[in-house]
Amino acid sequence: MKTLQRQHFDIIIEGNTAVANTVWNGKGLYFGTPFNDSQRCSITLIKKNGKVEILSEHCTPVK
Q1: SS3 at position 9
Q2: Cys-Cys link to 59, which of 11, 19, 28, 41 (CB 3.0-4.6 A)?
């Protein structure tokens, strides 16, 4: 990765669960091929035994 950035955070919290919606931007090389990518991501987090864990993350390219 040459550059990586997350921005435009929208976070919803309900009890011990949170959903964070973000925009991810990255530039770099993937197996020698250059890329410049922008994706909208949804991350589900849970708080379990006092620790926050990522339960899942899904990203979709923004074109």
Answers
A1: strand
A2: 41
